[in-house]
Design a protein that fits this description.
With 262 residues, the protein is α/β, with parallel strands linked by helices. It has a single domain (5-103, 128-240), classed as Spore Coat Polysaccharide Biosynthesis Protein SpsA, Chain A (Alpha-Beta Complex). The chain is built from nine helices and 16 strands. A seven-stranded mixed beta sheet has the order 2-1-3-12-5-13-10. The longest helix is centred in the first third of the chain and has 16 residues, at 19-34. It is globular and about 60 Å long.
Amino acid sequence: MKLEKVFIATPTVSGIVTTAYAGTLVAVTIGLRARNATYRYTNFDGSDIVMARNYLANTFLQDAACSHILFVDSDMAVPQETLAVMFDSGKDFIGTVYPERRLDLEKYGSYLMKGQTHRAALALSLIFNVRHSSEDVKIDKGLCRVNGLGFGCVLIARSVFEKIIAKRGADRLVSKKLRLSGLQGDMYDFFGEIALKNGDHLSEDYSFCERVNRTAACDIWAYVGGSVGHVGQFTYGGSYLESLEAQIRTMAPAEPVKIAKR
């Protein structure tokens, strides 16, 4: 689906955003204007991330002029080059792969001692917000299909939500708080946490991805080629592609992990 009007959606807590996010937001608007796309910005402030994402998604759907929603979290540092890949991909659902806000310093030091470069050791010591459907990760021009990913920065076409609704992949949502926030008409629970058989729950982002997978609404794509920052005590950043390649270099030949790049 062509980019026409993009709904920029940011959940916040206590109205706080980082300077890195401010730079990302500027880069988003520059990138969209360069592609003759318009945009609308909406923020939802509150500590309940499921409610925030549901509010933003349902508000997006109620604006018929919007072709896509771009979730950008308030602690993300996304370079303009990465945004350009997402905007030009033509994918109905594409996101960036970024690290969690923690670093295993012991592991980082051990990789340096084994001769890894700083960048490779850093990438190997971070945990990235992505799940693959198999051990055979195929990468084409920095893009790969995934089973799910975090919503720090994702671009999703309107048609994805419409297919989930049409196939009854999301329940109707009853929420007095969202009504008081101004939402009217039908609302859907796209991000409610899905219970697993072991009693655990998928997080809100992976629950949305699971609804996409269950309804076959679209393929989920990730851009792994860029270094995306996740701001905490400092900016946790590293290239997921470098992490994958470094894993290959450190594994024994018999171990069944592959990266196919075309």
